[in-house]
Write a structure and sequence with these properties.
- The protein is elongated, with a radius of gyration of 31 Å.
- By secondary structure, the protein is α+β, with helices and mostly antiparallel strands.
- It is 34% helix and 16% strand.
- The termini are far apart.
- The strands form two sheets. It has a five-stranded antiparallel β-sheet with strand order 1-10-9-6-7. The protein has a five-stranded antiparallel β-sheet with strand order 2-3-4-5-8.
- Among the domains are: 37 residues, no CATH class; 243 residues, PPM-type phosphatase domain (Phosphatase 2c, domain 1, 4-Layer Sandwich), CATH 3.60.40.
- Helix 7 crosses helix 8.
């Protein structure tokens, strides 16, 4: 029995020694050493904070440039570990200039025309406003590097001063009671063949001789909201005869009121977008025309790439200039279609104003790019001048749809007729 007891004691001592040695080799646990987990909520909070600092400008994913391409690392910058973000987060933090993702209704999204807004550098904006404190070559080199290494960009010569605008400024007195012309218009909008909803919005105020078109953008329902706000704001301004903002003393009153209506729309869209993350970055084009029968004048206010044409004696003339990188900076390729100006994406907007002298028999066409992308200008001229106005408008939209209808289509066609009486307001 003694030897059995001795063996038992020896086994207990051996087990105790083994346990002590094992505990010494185990590293103590360190609290807080786990890697930080980034939740979807954390990412969204960061996104909102960045948006507030930029006052409404679209945020970019750290690895993307404004046009959705990979940004170049700055020289001398140290590389930091990449933060792994889930695909769902990346999609929710989409830069403004990247086309929205494909919808379930369309398996061929690339076949649908999408309007993209490009944020121009301050140097380019300054040049657009007429300031020449920045070297043009330096400014062009900056925007070329920001968008695409292979981009071909050249400075387009400045547009000449509108002679009629100067004449109106020098002779902007009240008009008499007799009308010199009678504008008769027809406005129509269509969703097209590829879109699930219509982000275009027409404007028809025949009692004020005001007509217009708007092409909203922003993905999902945001574009539809932007164009609706724009047209409703302008309509209310004319109905109430209240045009907010400081008048431009260098513009004729009627044209200035139309431009201020667009500026009012810009402020309303921007305010709504700042209040709702789902609408952040939304904007719209606006092209509107106001006729003054007593002065025999037409005032065209314009932002974006919707257009205004005049048809006279079988000739077609584009009165507006597209606010795109192609038209303003000579960019080539797909980048040329990116908008350089839009209503609602910033606190302020620069509105172009043109003045024209209509003649009896002239026709004015305002349209979104859903028409001009589907029909050649020769075909637009042919259809717009053949038959009564209402039939021409329907024919333009039908043929654009027959050619593919890749975007929403909105058309306003106004014919200038002989006045039928006096005392028109």
């Amino acid at each position: 029995m003694t030897w059995l007891l001795a063996v038992g004691v020896a086994l207990v001592v051996f087990a105790f020694v083994v346990h002590r040695l094992a505990s010494k080799q185990t590293a103590p646990a360190i609290r807080g050493a786990e890697p930080k987990r980034h939740s979807l909520e954390d990412s969204n909070r960061t996104h909102r904070s960045s948006k507030d600092k930029s006052k409404g400008k679209a945020d970019s994913v750290p690895s993307s440039s404004p046009n959705g391409k990979k940004a170049k690392p700055s020289k001398g910058a140290k590389s930091s570990p990449a933060l792994k973000v889930s695909p769902a987060v990346l999609e929710s933090i989409r830069p403004l200039s990247v086309p929205p993702p494909a919808n379930d209704f369309d398996d061929e999204w690339e076949d649908v025309d999408v309007t993209v807004v490009a944020e121009l550098p301050d140097e380019i904006k300054a040049m657009q406003k007429g300031y020449r404190s920045v070297d043009p070559k330096q400014a062009v080199a900056q925007i070329a590097e920001e968008y695409d290494d292979t981009a071909e960009i050249e400075i387009i010569e400045e547009r000449l001063v509108d002679g009629l605008l100067v004449e109106e400024l020098l002779n902007d007195e009240d008009t008499g009671p007799n009308a010199l012309m009678l504008p008769i218009g027809e406005v129509l909008t269509d969703v097209g063949r590829r879109r699930p909803n219509n982000e275009d919005r027409p404007l028809s105020l025949p009692e004020h001789f005001v007509f217009g078109v708007a092409d909203g953008m922003g993905g999902h329902a945001a574009g539809e909201v932007a164009s609706k706000i724009a047209m409703e704001t302008i309509e209310k301004a004319f109905e109430d005869n209240v045009f907010e903002g400081e008048p431009n003393s260098l513009w004729p009153r009627r044209g200035d009121e139309l431009a201020r209506g667009i500026e009012m729309a810009n402020r309303n869209i921007f305010r709504v977008a700042m209040e709702d993350d789902a609408l952040s970055g939304m904007g719209t084009t606006v092209t509107a025309i106001r006729f003054c029968p007593e002065r025999q004048r037409a005032y065209i206010a314009h932002v974006g790439d919707s257009r205004c044409y005049r048809f006279r004696e079988g000739q077609m003339r584009q009165l507006t200039k597209d606010h795109t990188l192609g038209a303003e900076l000579g960019a080539k390729g797909k980048m040329a279609t990116h908008l350089s100006r839009s209503v609602g994406i910033a606190e302020t907007v620069e509105v172009d104003l043109m003045v024209d002298a209509p003649r009896v028999g002239d026709r004015y066409l305002l349209c979104t790019d859903g028409l001009t992308k589907m029909l050649s200008e020769e075909r637009i001229l042919e259809i717009s001048t053949d038959g009564i106005v209402a039939d021409c408008v329907r024919h333009l939209i039908d043929e654009a749809n027959d050619n593919g209808g890749k975007d929403n289509i909105t058309v306003a066609l106004v014919e200038i007729r002989e006045p039928v009486g006096t005392g028109m307001t």
